[in-house]
Specification:
By secondary structure, this protein is an alpha/beta fold. The chain has 5 helices and 5 strands. It has a single domain, classed as Rossmann fold (3-Layer(aba) Sandwich), CATH 3.40.50.2300. A 5-stranded parallel beta sheet has the order 2-1-3-4-5, sandwiched between helices. The relative contact order is 0.18.
């Protein structure tokens, strides 16, 4: 069975870049662009890993992260938070809420691939 990642991100360029990087590395990448329905997407097909943007339409990635960690189905899924706002307070909040890793944009292809591999133990 292949490894599945759910990318919750609303920027088309970021979606395209991460999808390309991870599919080349053997991942099946599912994408979702709406913060409001993100939890439904996770519940319908729990992935092996989630990459979650902080700023999404309709709902903050921090709120989604809080919900993911409070649900039995998603509480142990590795989650990498992505943000263009690399402030220490954002990083601290993400880690306190249960993010496995916090990465700022822009990022390199190798950096994303390596962190995903490390987080999932691949």
């Amino acid at each position: 069975m292949g490894k599945r990642v759910l990318l919750i991100e609303d920027e088309p360029n970021i979606i395209e870049a991460i999808s390309f990087i991870l599919s080349r590395d053997g991942w099946t990448v599912h994408t979702h662009e709406d913060g409001v329905t993100a939890m439904e997407k996770v519940a319908s097909m729990p992935p092996d890993m989630i990459i979650l943007d902080v700023m999404l339409p309709g709902r903050s990635g921090f709120d989604i992260l809080r919900d993911l960690r409070s649900q039995e189905i998603s509480k142990d899924i590795p989650i990498m938070m992505l943000t263009a706002r690399g402030q220490d307070k954002d990083r601290e909040l993400a880690l306190r809420l249960g993010a496995t890793h916090f990465m700022t944009k822009p990022f390199s292809n190798g950096e994303v691939r390596d962190h995903v591999r490390n987080m999932i133990g691949a």
